[in-house]
Design brief:
Length: about 60
Protein backbone atom coordinates (compact mmCIF):
# COMPACT_ATOMS: atom_id res chain seq x y z
CA UNK A 1 0.00 0.00 0.00
CA UNK A 2 1.34 3.44 -0.87
CA UNK A 3 0.56 6.88 0.50
CA UNK A 4 1.52 10.37 -0.63
CA UNK A 5 2.72 12.14 2.52
CA UNK A 6 3.48 15.66 3.75
CA UNK A 7 6.04 16.98 6.24
CA UNK A 8 8.45 14.07 5.66
CA UNK A 9 11.49 16.10 4.63
CA UNK A 10 14.66 14.39 5.82
CA UNK A 11 16.22 11.16 7.04
CA UNK A 12 15.49 12.16 10.65
CA UNK A 13 11.78 12.12 9.74
CA UNK A 14 12.16 8.73 8.04
CA UNK A 15 14.02 7.29 11.04
CA UNK A 16 11.36 8.58 13.45
CA UNK A 17 8.61 6.98 11.36
CA UNK A 18 10.47 3.67 11.12
CA UNK A 19 11.38 3.56 14.84
CA UNK A 20 7.88 4.48 15.94
CA UNK A 21 5.76 2.40 13.57
CA UNK A 22 7.71 -0.56 12.14
CA UNK A 23 7.26 -2.76 15.23
CA UNK A 24 3.50 -2.56 14.83
CA UNK A 25 3.08 -2.22 11.06
CA UNK A 26 6.14 -3.96 9.58
CA UNK A 27 8.73 -2.69 7.12
CA UNK A 28 8.16 0.88 5.92
CA UNK A 29 9.87 2.36 2.87
CA UNK A 30 9.95 6.12 2.29
CA UNK A 31 10.87 7.86 -0.96
CA UNK A 32 11.89 11.32 0.26
CA UNK A 33 12.10 12.84 -3.20
CA UNK A 34 8.62 11.71 -4.26
CA UNK A 35 7.24 11.87 -0.68
CA UNK A 36 5.75 8.40 -1.03
CA UNK A 37 5.53 5.96 1.87
CA UNK A 38 5.13 2.23 1.10
CA UNK A 39 4.24 -0.60 3.44
CA UNK A 40 2.18 -3.79 3.62
CA UNK A 41 -1.04 -3.01 5.46
CA UNK A 42 -4.26 -4.92 5.83
CA UNK A 43 -7.36 -2.83 5.13
CA UNK A 44 -8.36 -3.01 8.81
CA UNK A 45 -5.01 -1.43 9.84
CA UNK A 46 -5.27 1.70 7.67
CA UNK A 47 -7.19 3.88 10.14
CA UNK A 48 -4.92 2.98 13.05
CA UNK A 49 -1.80 3.56 10.94
CA UNK A 50 -3.12 6.92 9.71
CA UNK A 51 -3.83 8.06 13.28
CA UNK A 52 -0.43 7.01 14.61
CA UNK A 53 1.32 8.58 11.60
CA UNK A 54 -0.50 11.86 12.24
CA UNK A 55 0.30 11.66 15.97
CA UNK A 56 3.98 11.83 14.94
CA UNK A 57 3.29 15.16 13.20
CA UNK A 58 3.09 13.92 9.62
CA UNK A 59 0.19 13.98 7.19
CA UNK A 60 -1.13 11.51 4.64
CA UNK A 61 -2.26 13.46 1.58
CA UNK A 62 -3.76 10.55 -0.35
CA UNK A 63 -3.70 6.82 -0.79
CA UNK A 64 -2.08 5.79 -4.06
Amino acid sequence: MKFKVKNVNCMNCVNLIKKSLEDEFGNIEVDLEQKILSLNLEENQVLNFTKEFQDLGFEIVERL
